């Protein structure tokens, strides 16, 4: 059952004409992540590189392609976690970086801290020699249009966000039995400057523990935070639920308790995986035993050989 | 009517003898201030906010006035507040030049669509709702400035050793009101010589605190990075959901944190039925609790004093 990587490109509404481009991106990312794992690479390397690929793809709301805040600027959040030691790294409200997930990993590996925010995160990026990119290079025409549309007085950013692609993320189990998760996002469209969502919060944007499993989340960030969705899923799994059952129970609870929509990718220490969502769509892909699974609509599970 | 309870902490760390008396007096003041609100039929949310504000205003604690300095000699504050009825929450991270971050966190909860604001964005929001700006000087004690100067000359390794043993840390409160609602609040200046922009456990939902009417409320303190790795507040509540008492749940979660990530800390906990506890694995933690009839407090392990209120 080892190794396995499962990725998502965000839960929400996907226009029919964007089905193909949305699934193509996650399939490509899952293939690359799987190749790392097959050659003996670590789960940590696999999730970070998989998420970096999705950050570089303008189709998704992370890195290039990020949604804009109320001022029309890009502020990004990211999280990575290593299930072996529970080490984790996160950045919040960071600007002018191509790959926030790489900076999150550096926070984990080069500092005694877990999370750096805003200007402090940028200062650390400069100290690490990471080049700043022009803000324009992160902004797509699509993001600018979303931002403009949401300036109408009757616009509802939460509803709008669920109507578009969210957050990207990945979970992986390597041949050594180590688990990891990574999540990255541009956040909710027209968010207030400095808004931090679920993504960089440990136990909200993701969680990884070799003893339990790994989870990466997407969807309405504030709802995910209120119920600490990944932590909840892993507690259910600790009590004997399968990744699929645990995910469905936790997503149902999120809907019942805080009316939240979202999706998750999950893998347990044996390699049993799940990609579940209660939004209309979520683009996802999973690679295991030289098979690629993928889908975008509820209940869909297409396969092709790797 | 439920039995109203409030429990506060002034941080779990090796509190030196010269700060012991002031720390205990400070948590008793806070428990009293919050307890009065509950006694008059006020909400758990109001009670935890007021209790934490009292400690933010007290320079003996590392939160609000009395905060520690980061590597640049500046003050950056984190806070969270959460109410257990709707799971509403508000938090700020790395906010500067305000006296009461816990009240700004509450404003994020009540006046925005978001849960957390950080850095300059948090300060812009504070200005927009008329929160007064205070100079950094006003938040820092002369003693802290001296100690910061003293430790600044050491290498990073020594600073970390010092932090691991002598972390000034965090204040917090949990409460259960007469209507059966629980709430938590946590506020901190973080750890001395932290990197600019370092966010610890305090503003992170599920780590620095969590409140749910169905399971209880928790506020945590201690080594922030360890608390984050095990999402301590949420872990304690999961144990309570499975039938453990507030004390058992806090003890086994802190034990797990020590074993898994070698971190020490403390927590105050209240259950929806009023079962409460103040537990720590550090050398000391100043804590105090208010129930309808009595004030309990302590500083050293296994120590509980009691005063009857009149």
TrEMBL record, chain A:
<comment type="similarity">
    <text>Belongs to the Ntn-hydrolase family.</text>
</comment>
<keyword id="KW-0378">Hydrolase</keyword>
<dbReference type="GO" id="GO:0006508">
    <property type="term" value="P:proteolysis"/>
</dbReference>
<dbReference type="GO" id="GO:0005737">
    <property type="term" value="C:cytoplasm"/>
</dbReference>
<feature type="binding site">
    <location>
        <begin position="195"/>
        <end position="198"/>
    </location>
    <ligand>
        <name>substrate</name>
    </ligand>
</feature>
<feature type="binding site">
    <location>
        <begin position="218"/>
        <end position="221"/>
    </location>
    <ligand>
        <name>substrate</name>
    </ligand>
</feature>
<keyword id="KW-0645">Protease</keyword>
<feature type="site" description="Cleavage; by autolysis">
    <location>
        <begin position="166"/>
        <end position="167"/>
    </location>
</feature>
<dbReference type="InterPro" id="IPR033844">
    <property type="entry name" value="ASRGL1_meta"/>
</dbReference>
<dbReference type="GO" id="GO:0004067">
    <property type="term" value="F:asparaginase activity"/>
</dbReference>
<dbReference type="GO" id="GO:0033345">
    <property type="term" value="P:L-asparagine catabolic process via L-aspartate"/>
</dbReference>
<dbReference type="InterPro" id="IPR029055">
    <property type="entry name" value="Ntn_hydrolases_N"/>
</dbReference>
<protein>
    <recommendedName>
        <fullName>Isoaspartyl peptidase/L-asparaginase</fullName>
        <ecNumber>3.4.19.5</ecNumber>
        <ecNumber>3.5.1.1</ecNumber>
    </recommendedName>
</protein>
<dbReference type="Pfam" id="PF01112">
    <property type="entry name" value="Asparaginase_2"/>
</dbReference>
<dbReference type="InterPro" id="IPR000246">
    <property type="entry name" value="Peptidase_T2"/>
</dbReference>
<dbReference type="GO" id="GO:0008798">
    <property type="term" value="F:beta-aspartyl-peptidase activity"/>
</dbReference>
<keyword id="KW-0068">Autocatalytic cleavage</keyword>
<feature type="active site" description="Nucleophile">
    <location>
        <position position="167"/>
    </location>
</feature>
Automatic annotation (TrEMBL), chain B:
<protein>
    <recommendedName>
        <fullName>Isoaspartyl peptidase/L-asparaginase</fullName>
        <ecNumber>3.4.19.5</ecNumber>
        <ecNumber>3.5.1.1</ecNumber>
    </recommendedName>
</protein>
<dbReference type="Pfam" id="PF01112">
    <property type="entry name" value="Asparaginase_2"/>
</dbReference>
<feature type="binding site">
    <location>
        <begin position="198"/>
        <end position="201"/>
    </location>
    <ligand>
        <name>substrate</name>
    </ligand>
</feature>
<dbReference type="InterPro" id="IPR000246">
    <property type="entry name" value="Peptidase_T2"/>
</dbReference>
<dbReference type="InterPro" id="IPR033844">
    <property type="entry name" value="ASRGL1_meta"/>
</dbReference>
<keyword id="KW-0378">Hydrolase</keyword>
<dbReference type="InterPro" id="IPR029055">
    <property type="entry name" value="Ntn_hydrolases_N"/>
</dbReference>
<comment type="similarity">
    <text>Belongs to the Ntn-hydrolase family.</text>
</comment>
<feature type="active site" description="Nucleophile">
    <location>
        <position position="170"/>
    </location>
</feature>
<dbReference type="GO" id="GO:0008798">
    <property type="term" value="F:beta-aspartyl-peptidase activity"/>
</dbReference>
<dbReference type="GO" id="GO:0004067">
    <property type="term" value="F:asparaginase activity"/>
</dbReference>
<dbReference type="GO" id="GO:0033345">
    <property type="term" value="P:L-asparagine catabolic process via L-aspartate"/>
</dbReference>
<dbReference type="GO" id="GO:0006508">
    <property type="term" value="P:proteolysis"/>
</dbReference>
<feature type="site" description="Cleavage; by autolysis">
    <location>
        <begin position="169"/>
        <end position="170"/>
    </location>
</feature>
<feature type="binding site">
    <location>
        <begin position="221"/>
        <end position="224"/>
    </location>
    <ligand>
        <name>substrate</name>
    </ligand>
</feature>
<keyword id="KW-0068">Autocatalytic cleavage</keyword>
<keyword id="KW-0645">Protease</keyword>
<dbReference type="GO" id="GO:0005737">
    <property type="term" value="C:cytoplasm"/>
</dbReference>
């Amino acid at each position: 059952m080892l190794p396995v990587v499962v990725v998502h490109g965000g839960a929400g509404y996907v226009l029919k004409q964007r089905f193909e481009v949305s699934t193509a991106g996650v399939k490509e990312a899952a293939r690359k992540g799987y190749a790392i794992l097959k050659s003996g690479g670590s789960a940590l390397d696999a999730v970070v590189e998989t998420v970096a690929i999705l950050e570089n793809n303008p189709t998704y709301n992370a890195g290039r392609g990020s949604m804009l805040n109320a001022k029309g600027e890009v502020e990004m959040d990211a999280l990575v976690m290593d299930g072996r030691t529970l080490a984790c790294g996160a950045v919040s409200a960071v600007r002018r970086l191509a790959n926030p997930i790489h900076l999150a990993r550096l926070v984990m590996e080069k500092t005694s801290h877990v999370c750096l925010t805003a200007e402090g995160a940028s200062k650390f990026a400069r100290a690490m020699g990471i080049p700043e990119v022009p803000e324009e290079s992160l902004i797509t025409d699509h993001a600018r249009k979303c931002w403009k549309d949401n300036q109408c007085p009757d616009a509802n950013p939460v509803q709008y966000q669920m109507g578009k692609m969210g957050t990207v993320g990945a979970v992986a189990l390597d041949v050594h039995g180590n688990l990891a998760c990574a999540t990255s996002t541009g956040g909710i469209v027209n968010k207030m400057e400095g808004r931090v969502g679920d993504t960089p919060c440990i136990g909200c944007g993701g969680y990884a523990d070799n003893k339990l499993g790994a989870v990466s989340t997407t969807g309405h960030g504030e709802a995910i935070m209120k119920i600490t969705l990944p932590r909840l899923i892993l507690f259910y799994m600790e009590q004997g639920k399968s990744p699929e059952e645990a995910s469905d129970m936790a997503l149902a609870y999120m809907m019942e308790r805080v009316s939240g929509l979202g999706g998750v990718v999950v893998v347990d220490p044996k390699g049993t995986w799940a990609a579940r969502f209660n939004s209309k769509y979520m683009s996802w892909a999973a690679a295991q035993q030289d098979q690629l699974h993928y889908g975008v609509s509820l209940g869909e599970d297409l396969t092709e050989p790797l | 009517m439920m039995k109203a309870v409030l429990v506060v902490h002034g941080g779990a760390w090796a509190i030196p003898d010269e700060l012991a008396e002031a720390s205990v007096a400070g948590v008793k003041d806070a428990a009293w201030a919050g307890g009065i609100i509950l006694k008059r039929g006020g909400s758990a949310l109001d009670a935890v906010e007021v209790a934490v504000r009292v400690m933010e205003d007290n320079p003996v604690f590392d939160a609000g006035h009395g905060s520690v300095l980061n590597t640049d000699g500046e003050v950056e504050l984190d806070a969270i507040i959460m109410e257990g009825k709707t799971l509403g929450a508000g938090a700020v991270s790395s906010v500067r030049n305000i006296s009461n971050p816990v009240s700004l966190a509450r404003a994020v909860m009540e006046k925005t669509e978001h849960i957390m604001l950080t850095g300059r964005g948090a300060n812009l929001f504070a200005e927009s709702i008329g929160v007064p700006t205070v100079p950094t000087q006003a938040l820092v004690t002369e003693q802290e400035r001296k100690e910061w100067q003293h430790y600044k000359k050491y290498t990073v390794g020594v600073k970390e050793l010092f932090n691991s043993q002598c972390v000034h840390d965090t204040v917090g409160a949990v409460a259960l009101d007469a209507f059966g609602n629980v709430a938590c609040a946590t506020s901190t200046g973080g750890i001395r010589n932290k990197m600019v922009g370092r966010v610890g456990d305090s503003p992170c939902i599920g780590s620095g605190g969590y409140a749910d009417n169905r399971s209880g409320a928790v506020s945590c303190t201690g080594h922030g990075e360890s608390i984050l790795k095990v999402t301590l507040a949420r872990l304690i509540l999961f144990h309570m959901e499975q039938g453990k008492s507030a004390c058992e749940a806090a003890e086994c979660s802190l034990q797990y944190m020590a074993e898994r990530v070698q971190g020490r800390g403390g927590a105050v906990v209240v259950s929806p039925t009023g079962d409460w506890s103040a537990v720590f694995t550090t050398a000391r933690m100043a804590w105090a609790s208010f129930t309808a009839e009595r004030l309990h407090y302590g500083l050293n392990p296994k120590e509980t004093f009691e005063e009857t209120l009149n």
